[in-house]
Amino acid sequence: MPKFIMRRVGSLLIALTATCGFGQTLPTETSTLFSGSGNCVLCHSGGTGTLTTQAGRDISPPKLWRSTLMAHAAKDPLWQAKIAAEVKEHPELQTIIEDKCTTCHAPLGRTLAIFDGMNFYSLVAALQDPLSLDGVSCTLCHQIQNIDSGGASSFSGGYIILNLRQIYGPYPSPLANPMSNQVGFTPVFSEHIQKSELCATCHTLFTPFIDNQGNIGGYFPEQTPYLEWRNSVYPDSGRSCQSCHMPQVNESMRISLRPPAMAPLRSPISEHEFVGGNILLPQIFIAFPQDLSSSAPPAQWDSTLRKTRTLLKNRTARLTLEEILPGDTLQLTVRVENLTGHKFPTGFPSRLAWLHLRIDKPNGETFFESGKWAENGDIIGVDPELEPHHQIITDPNRVQIYQSVMQDVDNKPTYTLLRGASYAKDNRLPPSGFQNPTADIAVIGGASDDPDFNRFADGAQGSGSDRIIYRVPVPDPSLDLHVTVDLCYQTLSSPFAQDLLSYSNEPVTRFAEYYKQVDRTPAIVQSVSALVQATGIRSTSSLEKTHGLFQNYPNPFNSSTSIHFDLKNADTIQLHVYDLSGKNVRTIFSGYCSAGTKQMSWNGTDAENRPVPSGIYWICFVSSKNQKAIRVLLLR
Which of 341, 477, 521, 536 has the smallest CB count inside 10 Å? Predict the structure, then answer.
C-alpha cells in the first residue's frame, strides 16, 4: 500500500483506538517498514468469542503486551541512565554506544534509519520518535526474517527486516485480505515465529570492550540465555523461550474482530505476557506512569508485577534442606536447583541471587545469620570487592551469592559495560543438562572446581543445581532451633546501582529519584524451614505438591500485607498468624476453598482488631493433610 494511504489509515485509527478502554493511547503512526501498535488494537482486541477465554479473561496481545518491559524498552529509565553513564565514561564512543543500544531498545526507529541510509541512530532521535517509543512492538517481531536464525550473524540485534510487508504468524492458511486492506501488511504462516532463535536476536548480546588505551579489545558476552538454553535439556524436550514467557491457552477462539463472521477459530493462543524476572521496573512504572509516559495504566502494570513474582516463585528454582545433622556443631546441607532453561539469575550482569540462612533459638533470638540484608537492599557482611563462591560456610559474614561479575583488561571488577573484558566470577545456576560449556557461557571462579556445583552424585555434569554446606557451632545442643533458608533475588544489585548512581547527569539523577522511592528489598524466590529439636528434626517446609504458599508481599510491611496461596484442587484450609511464643494471634481464614490462586491479607491486628506490636510473626497455612509457614516482619 502506498505510504500516503498508510498514513491516512493510521490517522483514522487514532479515534478508533481511543475507544478501546485500555488507558493510555498506543501510537498509530506508520513508516515504510512499520506500523504503531495502536493500529493492531483495532482488530486484535478481546471481545465476544475473540481473544477472550471461556472464563472471560481478555488475552488479546495489545492488552497483555502493553504493560511489559518490551513495550517500554525505549522508555526504560534504567536503560537510559546506563547509556548516559557509559557515554560520560567514554564520550568519544557516544555514536557507537547509542546506535548499538537502540538496535534492540528502539528497534522500529533505528531499523528504519539504517534502511533509509543513515550510518547510526541516536538516543535523542529515538526519544522523539513515537514508533521508537513503541519499544519492541508487533510489527518488529512479526517481520523478522528466518535468515541465519540461531547463527552468529543474527545475534546482538542482527535481525533482518525486509520491505516485504509480511507479518509472520503461527497459524497455517491465514485470512489475508482484512489485514492487507486495513494496514497494508499480509499475514504469512511461518514456524520460526514460535522458536527460541527469534528471541535470540536481541537476547544474545556481545558488546565491544575497551582496553586501557581506549581501543576496542574484543567482544564480551554480556547476555547469553539462548546459548545457555541450547546447552541444556530444553531444546530436545521441545521447550522454547516462548513456552515459558508466552504461556498458551488451549481454547479455540478467533484472533481478530474483523471480519466477525469469517475469522477462523484458532488454538492454542500464546499469551503475550513476556514476563521475566525484573521486579524493579514494573514498580517504577506503577509509581511514575506520567513521568515515564507509560503506555499502560498502573493496574495493568500491577498485574504484570504479580505475574513476575509468581514466575519467580513457581518456575525459577527449587530450594531443599537435604540434610540436617544436629549436635555441638549443626550441619545443614542446602540444595538449590535451577528450573529455568538458562542460567539463573538471567542475562544482564546487574542481577543476583543469594542464600539467606537464619537460625533462631526458642525465644526468637538469632544466633547465626548469613545473607542478611539492610533496608536499602545491601547484603550485610559480604566482601565489598568480590564475594567468592563457597562450598562450605562457617562464618555468618560469608554468603553464597549466585552472580556474574565483569572484570576489565587488568582483571579488576567493573560495572562499566564497555570495560567488561571477561568475567571475574560466574556461578549463576546453570540449567539442567548443562555440560562442557563453551568459553562464552562457562562457569567461572570457585564454582568451576566445586564438586557439588552442577554435578550429579557420580561427578557427571548437568544437574543444574548446587549444594552448600553450613556448619554452625551451637551454644546449647539441648535447645530447639528453628532454621529458615531463603533464596533471595534482586534485579539490580546494590554494587551495580551504587556504581551507576555515582555518575552525575540528568538521566542518572532521574533514575535515582525513582529508584529511591520503590521497594528495593529482595524477592524471596523460595523459602524452606525446619524445627531442629533435641529429640529429632521436624520439618515445616514440605507442602503437598498440589498446593503452594508464597512469601507475603510486601515484607517487611507496615499497615497491610498480601498472602497468596495456590490450590491445585479444592480443600479445607486454615491460615493462622502466630507470634514467636507460639500464641495464635489471629486466624485469617478457616474453611473450604475452591481450586486456584487465592489472595488474602493481614493488617497487623489480632482477633479483636487491635494492632499488634512490631516484630516477627509466622503465617501458617494448614490444609487437610499438611502445612507450611512463612516468616513475616511487621514494622510500625
Answer: 536
